[in-house]
User: Which sequence fits this backbone?
């Protein structure tokens, strides 16, 4: 980490977390590539001068990072990039979860369409079956709602 703790939001807009890593979705976390310095100036990638403590090391900071009268952000490039990679990995992991849930929803929709067709055929045969089909459709709807609720609370 740099000379001072960092509390600006990341340039990444990903809002995801997994159980093994801390939640970094809050703007009060020091995670990722910084956008602004504490002084309000935009940060940019820079390289330490030969006169600095770490000559040649890349970092994010504003143009006034050497000003000792004010606190300025200095965040090492390698640390910021690793944090961004973690955020991207979380995003791709979560997208895989979304795809799996959507596939389940598609299968349930296909089953609902089949149930509707069966309901129409059964209605022609026997009006007593109609109640059973409606209950089946309601249960299938509850299953879809339950899957989506579980998924969204898991994220």
Assistant:
């Amino acid at each position: 980490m740099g000379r001072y703790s960092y509390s600006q939001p990341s340039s990444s807009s990903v809002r995801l977390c997994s159980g093994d890593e801390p939640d970094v979705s809050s703007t009060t976390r020091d995670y990722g590539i910084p956008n602004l310095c504490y002084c309000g100036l935009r940060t940019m990638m820079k390289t330490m001068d030969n006169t600095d403590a770490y000559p040649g090391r890349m970092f994010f900071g504003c143009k006034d990072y050497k000003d000792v009268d004010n606190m300025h952000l200095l965040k090492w490039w390698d640390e910021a990039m690793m944090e961004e990679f973690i955020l991207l990995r979380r995003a791709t992991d979560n997208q895989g979860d979304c795809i799996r849930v959507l596939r389940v929803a598609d299968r349930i929709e296909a089953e609902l369409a089949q149930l509707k067709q069966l309901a129409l055929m059964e209605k022609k045969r026997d009006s007593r079956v109609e109640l059973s089909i409606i209950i089946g459709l309601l249960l299938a709807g509850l299953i879809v709602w339950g899957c989506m609720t579980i998924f969204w609370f898991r994220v």
